[in-house]
Amino acid sequence: MPARQTLTHTLAKSDNPNDKKNIMNQLDMQGRHAVVTGGANGLGFAIVERMLASGARVTLWDRDAVAIDKAVSELRSHFTNATINSDVVDVVDHADVVRAAKTLAATGIDIVVNSAGVAGPNMPLLDYPIDAWQQVMNVNINGTFHVCRELVPLMKPKNYGRIVNIASIAGKEGNPNASAYSASKAAVIGLTKSLGKELASSGITVNCVTPAAVRTPIFSQLTPEHIQFMLSKIPMARFGLPEEIASMVCWLCTEDASFSTGAVFDLSGGRATY
Fold this sequence. Notes:
- The chain is α/β, with parallel strands linked by helices and 274 residues long.
- The protein has helices at 42-53, 65-78, 94-102, 130-155, 170-173, 179-198, 224-232, 242-252, and strands at residues 33-37, 57-62, 84-88, 111-114, 161-166, 204-211, 263-267.
- It has one domain (33-267): Rossmann fold (3-Layer(aba) Sandwich), CATH 3.40.50.720.
- Strands 3-2-1-4-5-6-7 form a seven-stranded parallel beta sheet, sandwiched between helices.
- Helix 4 (130-155) links the parallel strand 4 and strand 5 (161-166).
- Helix 3 (94-102) runs parallel beside helix 4 (130-155) and helix 4 (130-155) packs parallel to helix 6.
């Protein structure tokens, strides 16, 4: 791996906590190769931005080819010297994940962020459509399983790796009228704890973050009533910013986060008190 270099990437300062242009603390991800699923928009895109700003080279995985092309074009316009690759991958399709993993075998990877996810409909469990339940489970937990299963072997030869899974506060508390989402994110937390223990002596750490509501395109899948319910639970009385989630995720992907594995990090604006 190339020698470490100092990276300076500072955004304009703002006194408004809802303004994305805040000072970014410097993180060192020089020489690291990261794969981010769901990287074409929402939290995934914000995570990719922060990684590139921190010196990593990044491969975006997303099932939406149009969104990937748009995201990569935008990223290359802002990070002109960065290495940005992409692949159209459906994490639900195990064979597709196997194919995509093979393309990375030559270079290996250091970091995996499982950000691909869907919310599903808002309705009582007794009315929940079977196909919608299966879709949420397939993307949120089966997709995470597929990616971890196929990419961890690429980390093992290096005796180093960082895996961060995007769960949710709903996986700890259970949101009403969101049974599939809550259950799938609880499963992501359980997978994180289990895999973290399995890899604890390998140099590969596995952690997850549990954000409260963050205003991203996934809000389009939610009813206004459910959005207001989530906001009412946050003592800070605001939604999280994608950049705030990206900060924690990317720190967990650095060498500094060396003694945390199988852990759950809340980003809830005060909602989580345990």
